[in-house]
Amino acid sequence: MFPDLFRIGSLTIHTYGLFLVLGITVGLLIALKFGRGQGISPQAIMDMGFIIILFALVGSRLAYVLMNISYYQEHPLDIFIFWRGGLVFSGGLIAVLLALGGYLKRNHLSFWKIGDLWAPSAAIGQGIGRLGCFMAGCCYGKPTEMYWGVVFTHPDSLAPLNIPLHPAQLYGSLSGFIIFGVLYYLHAKKQFEGQLLLWFLILHSTARLLLERFRGDERGFILGSDMTVTQLFALLILFSAVIALFVRKPKDEAPPAP
Question: So where are the chain's domains?
Answer without folding.
Answer: 4-153+162-247
